[in-house]
């Protein structure tokens, strides 16, 4: 079945075309028509298979802009998924003027949501907890509801929303249409379907053979843990990836990898459950806009993220739950575009990799890591192509006179070679390397016990007026930390951050002695109280 076979309205077809749809995914092929016809549907499919449009297209098609009653509610487990689903539905409805879609979730002032609800939306996308709040306040009423969608129902159960779901489902009209999506099908999901859907709902399941779509090329590379960050950088450089996601199994590893990439000057951002909602929103906004081209995330934090245009997914580690692998690689190769995934493995991981291939019923091909020489050649070819375009399309005559005067007597080939090196490698100055005479090592009296992580430290330094480029190596200890900063930056932080507070702890930045320097011997008379020097040498 193709999109044209659905016989949708002109406005919706126009919106779908604008979104770049070329063909339907298996879930959409099987699911759109029964949802469009008003049947109850239960779909078992992982993230990244096109679920939002499976219910979104029928929902927007059947909602009348003239009807100002609440016609549909979509329930999602997380705030991020609520926002993304509402955005996707808004894109589908862009040419059906008068359709009002409101996202409702925790963490946002409820007064603001009440004002939006007074504008009588036809569609609400909500987290279960916040929807319950509005039902109690009577700011949302379900009596006219025609359609209820439960997206990622298994995740809502995992997050403890079972009682909330029961309340919502009991409050909705019996004659409504109920559409349920779940990556897995535990007994609790079956019970919900039996209790709240009409008899004989349409069952749709994405089989194992369809779990990893053909638009994603899957590779694995045998690389030890210590070399994986370098390998990621080399693959990104060689393939000119603009938007990438890196998945790690733990929050600690996310912070470590993000910090390593940042120190290598890659635009990386971390996303995990220990971050405040405001931080997570900022990270996702930067990633969506392409301001941060690399998102390093845990599986739970990234659940429900739906962003088109992700060039590559990197599995820094093989997930313990193979289902997460399916979710991970589903972030790329969307909307008919080609994507690629790289899974790193070494030693005992190879056996686990074989089990993964058996589970997904797909072949993960052994890939090769580009050599440094190959990466350099690719970069040079890119620069060459850019230069050729400039020579063909732009007037460069003004620069000839400057070159003749500024580089008098220097052969033009030497000048070109120097500029090429600058464009390809940047300026390799000694002062760019942390640990030399222009970088200093600083002690700061906060560490892991203050819930300080590498990303928190970078944010703290930035708040004090330090740029990311001025930050070198960061070592977070239990009670204190060491940071390498440009000398100028070290003076800035002592002026702007000393005496301020981090989580009720008064901050002290001071210059550290060299690592190899031993703790000086002191007499009892000299010791009035432990110095910061003594504290950090314990």
What would you call the shape? globular
Reported for the largest beta sheet, the result is: 7 strands, parallel
Individual helix count: 21
Topology, number of strands? 20
**Strand coverage percent:** 15-25%
Main-sheet strand order equals 3-4-2-5-6-1-7
List unreliable stretches of 5+ residues: 429-436, 514-538
Instruction: Return the structural class.
Output: alpha/beta
Mean pLDDT value: 84
Tell me roughly what share of residues is in helical segments. 40-55%
Radius of gyration: 28 Å
Task: State the end-to-end CA separation.
Answer: 70 Å
Briefly characterize the structure.
The chain contains 21 helices and 20 strands.
Which descriptors apply to this entry?
single chain, 538 residues, alpha/beta, seven-stranded parallel sheet, 17% strand, disordered C terminus
